[in-house]
């Protein structure tokens, strides 16, 4: 298996170098909020084991795109496929497919009245019928992996923001997802807590987890991404490997965006 550090700079435009198996496919996806056209004919493929980072100005449609992939947001036109299966509209089939798509949000969304360990075990037990003892053993393993095993018996309110977000990552991993979606996972954190979450995400990338990450953390994009997708006004304006994108963006919109964020 090629880790993220090796695969990061494939040596040419991203679409020309992708040779993997498609895991997430969006074709012609459109989304409106009233008169606002927030996604405009989105075509995007994420290959198995690939890390795709989506960046762009606020209001460009990044989070909406992320949330359509497991139908947290509906969409008006187009198709989305996960591992070759079209995303159902509703019902048990949608629930089953959602279980294969891990999601980490800006806010941690942990159950406040349950311990850290209970938060991580609940999904596999309730949604997948995993035995409690098996789910508990797996949860302990995952909490160790994200560096918060010593917090297992605490309530979320007793943890720092960075610790809570790492628990949220462990909770998503407990469902054994095929792909992980991250929607601005560090935006609600104090600056000193950001790196501890990003380090966990970099580790997942190196382990071969398929990831789609909406973020403003350009350092993470450089470290872990196979491909950077730049969005503006509901469109994918360009995409490339990180080295190409950050040193030689082809569109005026991307150059303007980078000139503003990389000088601060």
UniProtKB/TrEMBL annotation:
<keyword id="KW-0472">Membrane</keyword>
<dbReference type="Pfam" id="PF00005">
    <property type="entry name" value="ABC_tran"/>
</dbReference>
<dbReference type="GO" id="GO:0016887">
    <property type="term" value="F:ATP hydrolysis activity"/>
</dbReference>
<keyword id="KW-0547">Nucleotide-binding</keyword>
<dbReference type="GO" id="GO:0005886">
    <property type="term" value="C:plasma membrane"/>
</dbReference>
<dbReference type="InterPro" id="IPR003593">
    <property type="entry name" value="AAA+_ATPase"/>
</dbReference>
<keyword id="KW-0029">Amino-acid transport</keyword>
<dbReference type="InterPro" id="IPR027417">
    <property type="entry name" value="P-loop_NTPase"/>
</dbReference>
<dbReference type="GO" id="GO:0005524">
    <property type="term" value="F:ATP binding"/>
</dbReference>
<dbReference type="GO" id="GO:0015426">
    <property type="term" value="F:ATPase-coupled polar amino acid-transporter activity"/>
</dbReference>
<keyword id="KW-0813">Transport</keyword>
<protein>
    <recommendedName>
        <fullName>ABC-type polar-amino-acid transporter</fullName>
        <ecNumber>7.4.2.1</ecNumber>
    </recommendedName>
</protein>
<dbReference type="InterPro" id="IPR050086">
    <property type="entry name" value="MetN_ABC_transporter-like"/>
</dbReference>
<keyword id="KW-0067">ATP-binding</keyword>
<dbReference type="InterPro" id="IPR030679">
    <property type="entry name" value="ABC_ATPase_HisP-typ"/>
</dbReference>
<dbReference type="InterPro" id="IPR003439">
    <property type="entry name" value="ABC_transporter-like_ATP-bd"/>
</dbReference>
<comment type="similarity">
    <text>Belongs to the ABC transporter superfamily.</text>
</comment>
<keyword id="KW-1003">Cell membrane</keyword>
<dbReference type="InterPro" id="IPR017871">
    <property type="entry name" value="ABC_transporter-like_CS"/>
</dbReference>
<feature type="domain" description="ABC transporter">
    <location>
        <begin position="24"/>
        <end position="258"/>
    </location>
</feature>
């Amino acid at each position: 298996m090629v880790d993220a550090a090796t695969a990061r700079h494939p040596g040419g435009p991203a679409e020309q170098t992708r040779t993997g198996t498609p895991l997430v496919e969006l074709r012609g996806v459109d989304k409106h909020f009233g008169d606002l056209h927030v996604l405009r004919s989105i075509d995007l493929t994420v290959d198995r084991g690939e890390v795709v980072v989506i960046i762009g100005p606020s209001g460009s449609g990044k989070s909406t795109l992320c949330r359509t992939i497991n139908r947290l947001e509906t969409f008006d036109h187009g198709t989305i496929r996960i591992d070759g299966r079209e995303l159902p509209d509703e019902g048990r089939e949608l629930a089953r497919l959602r279980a294969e798509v891990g999601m980490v949000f800006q806010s941690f969304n942990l159950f406040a009245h349950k311990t850290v360990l209970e938060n991580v075990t609940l999904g596999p037990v309730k949604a997948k019928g995993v035995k409690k003892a098996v789910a508990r053993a797996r949860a302990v393993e995952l909490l160790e992996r994200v560096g918060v095993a010593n917090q297992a018996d605490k309530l979320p309110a007793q943890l720092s923001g960075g610790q809570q977000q790492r628990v949220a990552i462990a909770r998503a991993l407990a469902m054994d997802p095929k792909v992980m979606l991250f929607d601005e996972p560090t935006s609600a954190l104090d600056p000193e807590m950001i790196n501890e979450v990003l380090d966990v995400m970099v580790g997942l990338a190196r382990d071969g987890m398929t990831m789609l990450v909406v973020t403003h953390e350009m350092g993470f994009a450089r470290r872990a991404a196979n491909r950077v997708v730049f969005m503006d006004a509901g469109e994918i304006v360009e995409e490339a490997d990180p080295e190409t994108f950050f040193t030689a963006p082809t569109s005026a919109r991307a150059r303007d965006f980078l000139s503003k964020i990389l000088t601060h």
